[in-house]
Amino acid sequence: MTTTSSTASPAYWEPLWAAGRRYRQLCEAEKQLMAGHLGPGKGRPALDIGSGDGSLARHLHHELGYRTTGVDCSPSALALAADQDDGPGPTWQRADITTDDLSALPYTAYALLTCRLVYRWMDDKPGFLDRVRRLLTPGGTFWVVTGIADRRTTTDPGLLELGISPADAELLTTGWSVVRTADLDVLRCYALRP
Q1: Coil, helix or strand for 69?
Q2: Which residues, in sequence order, are CB contacts of 45 under 8 Å at separation 6+?
Q3: pTM metric for this prediction
Q4: Dihedral through CA 124, CA 125, CA 131, CA 137, nearest 10?
Q5: Contact 34, 62 (CB under 8 A)
């Protein structure tokens, strides 16, 4: 019997990062959307979930002014992120946000939580969203960037599956007092507030 690794686990992501796999970089349009929806950080704490190579965490820290921590379950991704630092910047921490003790994080609450190209991979989306809500300060923002199913103009089933379904989008947006969205080609950006 073959067992498949959870797509939210270190066993799934570590071999990909270790083998040199890289993912979509931030573009200027996405940076402008963040500036408009998130505003200046003013030194408030931010947590970048699934930080990968650290490009989003560095942007939040250096460009928007948040005190940013990047967490990822892959040691190779974190090593890559740390190797790109040119001085003081975000802190990096190995953590599996779906299973690890949240009290091990540097802060008990965050003004901003980001989840870029990660939400689709969460096996237990309701459990993940509960953890996010526990970490977010009142008035804080949960910024999610994810692909939307059927947006890609391809016949490659592997690429078509990279987006979330309408049911996953509904689950993501339910229970927030403010839901703002912006489209960015095959991606949708969500600014969610309690």
Answers
A1: strand
A2: 66, 67, 68, 69, 106, 107, 109, 110, 111, 112
A3: 0.89
A4: 170
A5: no
Determine the Cα–Cα distance for residues 96 and 76; give it in Å rounded to an integer.
14
Beta strands at 91-94 and 110-116: parallel, antiparallel or unpaired: unpaired
Whether residue 33 contacts residue 96, with contact meaning beta carbons closer than 8 Å, is answered with no
Rounded Cα gap, residues 135 and 65, in angstroms:
19
Structure confidence by residue, pLDDT tens digits, 1-22: 444 456 666 777 777 767 777 7
Amino acid letter, residue 174: T
Q: Locate tokens 């998130």: which residue?
A: 38
pLDDT tens readout for residues 81-131: 998 877 889 999 999 999 999 999 999 999 999 999 999 989 999 999 999
Distance CA 102, CA 133 (A): 12
CA-based R_g, the chain, Å: 16
Q: Is residue 170 helix, strand or coil?
A: helix
